[in-house]
Design a protein that fits this description.
- The complex is a heterodimer.
- Chain A has one domain: Orthogonal Bundle (MetI-like fold), CATH 1.10.3720.
- Chain A has 15 helices and two strands.
- In chain A, helix 2 crosses helix 15 and helix 14 runs antiparallel to helix 15.
- Chain A is globular, with a radius of gyration of 24 Å.
- The N terminus of chain A is likely disordered.
- Chain B folds into two domains: 181 residues, Periplasmic binding protein-like II (D-Maltodextrin-Binding Protein, domain 2, 3-Layer(aba) Sandwich); 204 residues, Periplasmic binding protein-like II (D-Maltodextrin-Binding Protein, domain 2, 3-Layer(aba) Sandwich).
- In chain B, a hairpin with a 2-residue loop joins strand 5 and strand 6.
- Chain B starts with a helix and ends in a 5-residue tail after the last helix.
- In chain B, 53% of the residues are buried.
- The chains are: A mainly alpha, B alpha/beta.
- At the A-B interface, helix 2, helix 7, helix 13, helix 14 and helix 15 of A face helix 1, helix 2, helix 4, helix 5 and helix 13 of B.
Chain lengths: 310, 447
């Protein structure tokens, strides 16, 4: 992947674009609705949260200025590093589980046989369900006394699934993966279908088998898809809330209390809006840092072509 | 969620991302009942009232509103109902955003105090002075949790709900044991039941407040109500009291001995799975609120009607100083009036309090549902009822208690309650020792 492919397309000139669409003047105004919504629902609340983090507020009374108190409480709270640790554990584990399975399923579903099309539709069902409904359903299935194990008379399924620290974390990762693998499979399916047939034909002539083709052609060609899907998984996992809230409510103890849950519990159950806003801001910061880091790793350089050798 | 768009925007502007998540938090949206339209904020000529769903309470509350509206067609009350856990968050955010109802349904204690501190609820002391008849009708003990700094901010209402010990008599016959009379008896039963393949105690441990009920009783039986009172009063290091440490050690002893059903930390109380364990015979005993009687009789087949359910107050602990007649639980439910309501709305609410709440008709409905209304002399209604023995037992526990303590998480401020429940969960996971529990909790005394 080191050779630089020649850029064959000349950059379209602005006048060319406007002439073709038949309009006149600049098209930047088209971005205005998006910018408006981003400012109204992204930037302004964020500023509000930042301001709140310097105050003391119980959610119902008056808001008092409190300087750095909330930040001091939040940063000194041993719950914060713990919540960060849990958040990253869930993030990394669910990424490590989802990525390989999604790629394999995506490649499998990319072929055009009819039965695979039927399977693709079935696989996609979890994406259509609401997270809360999934969590409620799994909670009922995992009940140690009246759950799946009892129903099927399989005693090994009657574990204390949500009551043991590590087990509960594993269950969360499993359910999150169950829910999101279909979505990422779909992304990979689309990406694999974009790959030119000619590459595989050339490989076949060279004598490469299916496995070799997968490692040498499919996987390298999916690089940008992997980066995009991973970004969605990692940044998205920062905001996992509904599933965990319904499933374990952060328990047992604080074993599955992620940053998002910690923020909710601090703000809405313990009535400490100041520290909760501080946690929210940390959450935003971590998310931004992560997204930027992934962009850098992904090396979004436009000069790289995915089509080299094609 | 069916949160109205305007409410949502208001919250979003206030707390940003955090509030967005709150909207996903509830498991069910509000339902409108009674007369009028669907909007949450105001009612023309009348007042608004938010209360809880769930049988039998929901139906009885709705009937009370209906009776009031039939008698006062010009000033109707518009009721909106919410599921219990969703309501706890919803009411706080709504009051904070100035979108709350005229009549606020609540649990009194620490939650009420936070409304009082924020000047959100009306002081009713003067009103009770003018309407002494209203006050004199109700259990005097129910006013404690309605009182903040000597002033009354809520009308005690509905039913008294002590926490009691339930037994599955069939399981006791199976191992040929008697109903335990002391804590030591109970501990001795643990290995016997386990040997017979029956869990000694059912517990919905994931709900956390279920674990808390055990500590409330052990603290009381070992050291008397003074031990928790000291915490409530904000005394320094109150959790390190020797009685407190002993109670915490006893509960961990019971957990280590396998006293609670396997997987109790995965079981929630709101699904009623803990009750199901008792009436299906998987567990022998359960410590729970008297409100579970109704659902056990409706869901448990012939468990209740066939006389297989036994009950008693929590037994005494050897060497303990607490009075064995003491109990804990909900001394009542609490209706407050929003101080932000208009004068007309407040008048409607006060009229509702005076003429409709805890009326004889409502009391009869509560008794028929197996609950004791907090009205003096309600014992006269019990005779001849289907569940007469049970009702007389609950009435006896509630009226005979030397101290009727309010549940800890309701008595404390929401901030302290959250830390409390968190640490109780860890204590039951055996991930912290009694000493660590005391240290963690001492830090939040007085907050």
């Amino acid at each position: 992947m080191t050779t630089v492919a020649p850029t064959t397309l000349p950059a379209p000139s602005r006048t060319g674009v406007t002439n073709k669409t038949g309009g006149t003047g600049s098209v930047t105004w088209m971005a205005l609705p998006a910018v408006f919504f981003f400012i109204a629902f992204g930037v302004i609340p964020l500023i509000g949260v930042l301001a709140l983090s310097f105050t003391q507020w119980d959610g119902i009374g008056d808001i008092h200025w409190a300087g750095l108190d909330s930040w001091r409480t939040t940063l000194n709270n041993p719950g914060l590093p713990h919540a960060l640790k849990v958040t990253f554990e869930i993030m990394i584990l669910s990424w490590a589980v989802q990525t390989p399975i999604s790629i394999l399923l995506g490649v499998f579903l990319a072929s055009h046989e009819r039965y695979r099309g039927v399977l693709a539709v079935l696989y996609f069902i979890p994406v259509l369900l609401s997270s809360a409904a999934i969590a409620v359903a799994f909670k009922a299935l995992l009940d140690p006394n009246f759950g799946l194990g009892t129903g099927l008379h399989l005693d090994f399924l009657n574990q204390d699934w949500l009551g043991k620290d590590k087990l509960a974390l594993g269950v969360v990762v499993f359910i999150v993966s169950w829910q999101f693998i279909p979505f990422h499979s779909l992304i990979y399916q689309g990406a694999v279908r974009q790959l030119p047939r000619s590459m595989y034909e050339a490989a076949e002539i060279d004598g490469a088998g299916r496995v070799r083709q997968f490692w040498s052609i499919t996987l390298p060609q999916l690089k940008y898809t992997i980066v995009a899907s991973s970004t969605l998984m990692l940044v998205g996992s920062l905001t996992f809330f509904d599933i965990i809230f319904v499933l374990t409510a952060g328990g047992p103890g604080d074993a599955t209390r992620t940053l998002a849950l910690d923020m909710y519990k601090t703000g809405f159950q313990a009535n400490l809006m100041g520290p909760a806003s501080a946690i929210a801001f940390i959450l935003v910061f971590v998310g931004l840092a992560l997204a930027l880091l992934l962009r850098r790793i992904g090396g979004g350089g436009l000069a790289d072509s995915q089509m080299e050798g094609a | 969620m069916t949160t109205s768009r305007r409410t949502f925007l208001r919250i979003a502007a206030g707390a940003g991302a955090a509030a967005g998540l709150a909207a996903c938090g509830g498991t069910s949206g509000p339902k409108s009942s009674g007369s009028g339209g669907a909007s949450g904020g105001s009612a023309k000529g009348g007042a608004t009232y938010w209360y809880l769903t769930g049988a039998p309470g929901e139906g009885i509350r709705t009937n009370t509103v209906k009776r009031f509206n039939d008698a006062n067609p010009k000033t109707p009350i518009k009721g909106t109902t919410f599921q219990n856990d969703a309501y706890k968050t919803k009411i706080k955010t709504a009051i904070g955003a100035g979108q709350g109802p005229t009549i606020i349904w609540g649990w009194g204690g620490g939650g009420l105090k936070s409304y009082v501190d924020a000047n959100q609820v009306e002081d009713l002391t003067g009103w009770f002075g003018e309407n002494a008849a209203v006050k004199d009708r109700l259990f005097p003990g129910s006013f404690g949790a309605a009182t903040v700094d000597g002033k009354i901010y809520a009308l005690p209402a509905e039913t008294v709900q002590p926490i009691v010990m339930f037994y599955n008599k069939t399981n006791f016959e199976k191992i040929k044991a008697d109903i335990p009379q002391t804590w030591e008896d109970m501990m001795a039963l643990v290995p016997k039941f386990n040997k017979a393949g029956i869990a000694p105690f059912s517990l919905g441990g994931q709900s956390r407040w279920t674990n808390m009920m055990w500590l409330e009783f052990l603290f009381d039986r070992i050291g008397g109500p003074e031990v928790f009172q000291a915490v409530f009063d904000g005394e320094k290091d109150a959790w390190s009291n020797p009685a407190s440490i002993k109670a915490l050690t006893e509960i961990q002893k019971l957990i280590k001995a396998g006293g609670f059903i396997k997987g109790f930390s995965s079981i929630t109380a709101d699904s009623n799975a803990d009750q199901a364990l008792l009436f299906t015979g998987k567990a022998a005993m359960m410590l729970h609120g008297t409100w579970t009687y109704g659902s056990m009789s409706s869901d448990g087949g012939d468990f209740v009607s066939g006389g297989h359910l036994g009950y008693s107050n929590f037994p005494p602990v050897a060497g303990g100083t607490g009075d064995p007649s003491n109990t804990v639980g909900n001394p009542g439910q609490y209706y407050s009036i929003s101080s932000k309501a208009t004068a007309a709305e407040k008048d409607v609410a006060k009229n509702f309090f005076k003429t409709a709440v805890s009326s004889d008709a409502e009391s009869k409905e509560w008794v028929a549902a197996g609950a004791i209304p907090i009205v003096n002399g309600s014992d006269s209604l019990l005779t001849g009822q289907k569940d007469e023995d049970w009702l007389k037992f609950v009435y006896g526990v509630a009226s005979g208690a030397k101290t009727f303590a309010q549940s800890w998480d309701q008595a404390l401020s929401p901030t302290a309650a959250e830390v409390l429940l968190d640490n109780i969960a860890k204590l039951f996971q055996l991930s912290i020792s009694p000493q660590q529990y005391a240290d963690n909790m001492n830090k939040v005394i007085g907050t």
